[in-house]
Structure formats: structure tokens, C-alpha cells
Design a protein that fits this description.
The chain has 73 residues and is an alpha+beta fold. Helix content is 32%, strand content 25%. The mean pLDDT is 87.
């Protein structure tokens, strides 16, 4: 397996940013609710992954995205 050295983000104003520690999620083909989800991690350790999960859940709560799940129950 190859280790990811860095992640480059290219902006629409032609600027770019190189990230040396982070995560990119590639959703691949998502037609008809079928698709591949690929997690590309760069220098992520266990404690970092815990922080990522916590931050994503907090973001979803802030955006009200978890309220829909509560309504279904």
C-alpha cells in the first residue's frame, strides 16, 4: 500500500493549498444509491480519526442534519 504524502486542493481562482495532514472522502459513483466511498488519509492517527468523527457529527448537528433522523423515529 502506498502512503499519501500530501493532499492538494485547487480552488476556482487558480490558487491551491497543500495539506500535509487531513482526510479526503471520495464518493465515487453514487448513481441509484450505489457507490463506492473511499477514505484517503494523510498522516492521520487514531486520535485524529476520533477528532474527525466528533467534528463531523458536531457539524451535522449545527446544520440540523440530524434532526431528520429524529423525526423518523
Amino acid at each position: 500500500m502506498k502512503d499519501i504524502k500530501n493532499i492538494t486542493v485547487n480552488y476556482d481562482n487558480n490558487e491551491s493549498k497543500t495539506i500535509t495532514k487531513g482526510l479526503v472522502i471520495d464518493f465515487g459513483k453514487l448513481d441509484n444509491d450505489e457507490g463506492d466511498v473511499c477514505f484517503n488519509m494523510c498522516n492521520i492517527k487514531g486520535k485524529d480519526l476520533h477528532l474527525i468523527v466528533t467534528a463531523v457529527v458536531a457539524l451535522a448537528q449545527e446544520l440540523g442534519m440530524l434532526d431528520e433522523e429524529r423525526e423518523v423515529d
